[in-house]
Write a structure and sequence with these properties.
The protein is an alpha/beta fold. Helix content is 43%, strand content 16%. It has 14 helices and eleven strands. The strands form two sheets. It has an eight-stranded parallel beta barrel, surrounded by five helices. A two-stranded antiparallel ribbon has the order 9-11. Strand 5, helix 10 and strand 6 form a beta-alpha-beta unit. The chain binds ligand G3I.
Length: 327
């Protein structure tokens, strides 16, 4: 009997001709250590984002001392494999360097430090990073107030506009994104985020897109398509930037099927709502933040711990094969 010679197309082989970015967060050390992880990332995805390597703390453990090794590894891997890169993230309240977060700098000094950080990081990868998560998670977990973060305390709400302006000056070609979780459905937080980015844009701040992280359990965000539409109507591109669908462990077959249905619905909604960037927060359960942060949860990604495709992968593959009518 002849072995089947139909080679199944990868997600990126289906997505790229449609002008669609299907991506994943990647970890530089895992990329170095795990050949299977490396091969799968290059085969299936046309975009990657650094899970941690481009955050302020990991990059700059001491004042003016940058360690770009991990970030460079990921950017080089993307270039070698014809992948676009998302930059993540310039201004966030987590993973700050200790010398800054617990330092004694004046507000003026903190402003100068942030400006120099953005110029250094965005400048280094100018022309090689398609889009930057400039500000990440500026709202309280449940919105609608701005998070009382290190940046808000030190600089006031102006920090948002400054960050986008500095990033644009450092790389005018990069698409600049406001990224957050909990803004996927129609709720007070997404309404506040829409008002904020609309106000910044009206003031001439170079802000081009909104990233909906999409860290969810197996249920769809409320009125997702309606929410996407209102951001697009306000003039913003929308991206799904950190997709994962966490399940109760030990995982049950029925939950895997439910997860597949959610991944299918998310990708269909993206493709029929004018979204062209669908990035997952990892791609294999072998390397995911979920079990470390949510006790008793896991199995959130389309490949299992043995790098084998799960029903969620088949769902994504089917949607890209059927390529719903793109907006
Ligand atoms: O690198 C150190 C290592 O030297 C040390 O031995 C080890 C134990 O303390 O910690 C390591 O750092 C960890 C880092 O991940 C790298 O593995 C940090 O403790 C840990 O807190 C950090 O977690 C990251 C988390 O952001 C921080 O909040 C996750 O990997 C990362 O997936 C997660 O990603 C965030 C996005 O950036 C923003 N959206 C939410 C998403 C999930 O929290």
């Amino acid at each position: 009997m002849h072995a089947s010679n139909t080679v199944t197309a990868s997600l990126r082989q289906l997505a790229t001709p449609q002008g669609f970015f299907i991506g994943a967060a990647a970890d530089a050390q895992t990329l170095r250590d795990d050949a299977g992880y490396r091969t799968l990332l290059a085969r299936e995805f046309n975009m990657l984002v650094a899970e941690n390597a481009m955050k302020f703390g990991p990059l700059c453990p001491q004042p003016d001392q940058y360690d770009f090794a991990n970030a460079d590894t990921l950017v080089a891997f993307a270039a070698t494999n014809g992948m676009q890169v998302r930059g993540h993230t310039l201004v966030w309240h987590q993973q700050l360097p200790q010398w800054l977060e617990h330092g004694t700098q004046t507000p003026a000094q903190v402003k100068a430090i942030l400006k120099k950080h953005i110029q250094t990081l965005v400048g280094r990868y100018r022309g090689r990073i398609a889009m930057w998560d400039v500000v990440n998670e500026a709202f309280d977990d449940n919105g609608p107030a701005l998070r009382d973060s290190f940046w808000l305390k030190k600089l006031g709400p102006e920090y948002l506009a400054w960050a986008f302006q500095w990033a644009h000056a450092a790389d005018p070609a990069a698409q600049l994104v406001y990224n957050d979780f909990g803004i996927e459905g129609m709720n007070a937080k997404s309404a506040a985020a829409l008002a904020l980015v609309t106000r910044l844009k009206a003031a001439g701040v170079p802000i081009h897109a909104v990233g909906m992280q999409m860290h969810i359990t197996p249920e769809m965000p409320v009125r997702l398509a309606e929410n996407i539409a209102r951001f697009r109507k306000a003039g913003f591109a929308v991206q799904f930037t950190e997709v994962d669908v966490q399940l109760p462990m030990p995982v049950q077959p029925a939950a895997l099927a439910q997860q597949a249905d959610i991944y299918r619905a998310l990708l269909e909604t993206a493709m029929t709502s004018g979204i062209n960037t669908f990035v997952m927060w990892g791609f294999t359960d072998r390397h995911s933040w979920v079990p470390h942060f949510f006790k008793g949860k896991g199995a959130a990604l389309p490949f299992d711990e043995q790098l084998q495709p799960k029903p969620a992968y088949a769902a994504l593959h089917a949607v890209l094969t059927q390529s719903p009518s793109r907006q």
